[in-house]
Amino acid sequence: MRDADSPAPEIELRLWRQFLAVAESLHFGRAAQRLQMTQPPLTQAIQQLERRLGTALFERTRRSVVLTPTGAALVEPVRQLLQQAAALGVRARDAAGGEVGRIRLGFVSTVGFGPLPAWLRAFREAHPGIAMELREATGDVQFEAFSQRELDAGFVLHAPGIAPPPPLQRLSLGIEPMLLVLPESAPKRPSAAQLLGEPLVIFPRAIAPSLYDAVLAFYHRHGATPVIAQEAIQMQTIVNLVSAGLGLALVPESMRLLQRPGVVYRGLPAALADGAPRCETSLLWRPDAPPAALRFVAFVRERC
After folding, report:
1. Model confidence pLDDT, tens digit, residues 141-151
2. Band of the pLDDT at 61, cuts 50, 70, 90?
3. Contacts of 41 (CB under 8 A, 6+ apart)
4. Distance in angstroms (rounded) separating the CA atoms of residues 175 and 178
5. Over the stretch 243-284, which tens digit does the pLDDT of each residue have?
6. How far, in Å, CA of 52 to CA of 240, rounded?
7. Neighbouring residues of 199: CB distance < 8 A, sequence distance ≥ 6
8. Tens of pLDDT along 227-238?
9. Exposed, middle or buried, 182 (CB in 10 Å: 0-12/13-18/19+)?
10. How confident is the model over 159-176, as a mean pLDDT?
11. Mean of per-residue pLDDT scores for the chain
12. Exposed/middle/buried for 181, CB within 10 Å: 0-12, 13-18, 19+?
């Protein structure tokens, strides 16, 4: 008998498959036929299995084969084991083809006001075997996560045409104008000088340097230097700070869907149309991202 304190033996699937064939037929001859082998090697295999387990699995007489309590207790676990083993090949093929797996996806908050919710719902319905791990993060945080291999793909906001740091690849999801967010009490038709002279609520340069620089270049093009009243990371927070009377802001047009009391969204007046800032949303991904992430990229590409 095997020592109770010794580790359980590692037993190859072949022996378990032979055990299950005998257990289900309770006849060595029929089990051997099912396994396409002769009876003596099958008998020897079962004896080998019993020696390795240190216990009998079958009680044999000249006329019958009966499972011992230990053997009976093993039938269903062994059946499940063999089913799981058989499924591994299918799962491996599905994983290699991107049908199962995990995607670690970053996104900036503004994408939530665009097509992202509908895309996520449709992708999950089409690919139930892929788990989505979503992480809301600004561009600078996403770039660091990419460098640490903590993200597979991510949606970022930037000035049009800006290339991501290598080796990341980019898919443009579109360019949109930036709108003014004004306090509700602002004049309906403020002059260009009034707008340029108002305090500005803006995001920190570190989180989207190209877009920050585009906003400042817009002011400089019109002979003004913005008076930055407050910086805030999230566009939603920027809108809320405008509603609190801290100044005006420039936000992506899609933010118009965010309705807040005390603010109005307006396009830039014609006098400020020259060099009006625009923003671009892109999907970035690592070229060595797992197949599931590359399948998501292909899914988004079909819808752009």
Report:
1. 999 999 999 99
2. confident
3. none
4. 10
5. 999 999 999 999 999 989 999 999 999 999 988 999 999 999
6. 70
7. 227, 228, 229, 230, 246, 247, 248
8. 999 999 999 999
9. buried
10. 95
11. 91
12. buried
232 close to 90: Cβ distance less than 8 angstroms: no
Strands 153-158 and 101-107: parallel
Dihedral angle computed from the Cα positions of residues 44, 46, 50 and 52, in that order, rounded to the nearest 10 degrees: 70
Integer CA distances (angstroms), 77 to 48, 68, 82, in order: 19, 15, 9
Q: Measuring CA to CA, how many Å separate 141 from each of 47, 79, 81, 133, 149? A: 60, 47, 43, 16, 12
| Residue type (1 letter), 261 | P
Is the Cβ–Cβ distance between 301 and 171 less than 8 Å? yes
Distance between CA atoms of 22 and 13, rounded to whole angstroms?
Answer: 14
241 pLDDT higher than 70: yes
Q: Is 108 left (phi over 0), alpha (psi -120 to 50) or beta?
A: beta
Query: Do 173 and 146 form a contact (C-beta atoms < 8 A)?
Result: no
Residue 89 has pLDDT above 80, yes or no: no
* DSSP letter assigned to residue 188: S
How far from chain centre, in Å, is Cα 174? 21
Residue 168 identity (one-letter amino acid) = L
AA letter at 55: T
* Structure-token pair, residue 281: 């949303």
pLDDT at residue 180, as a whole number: 97
Asked if residues 87 and 94 have their Cβ atoms less than 8 Å apart, the reply is no
Q: At 296, which amino acid appears? A: F
- A 10 A CB-CB count for 187 gives 9
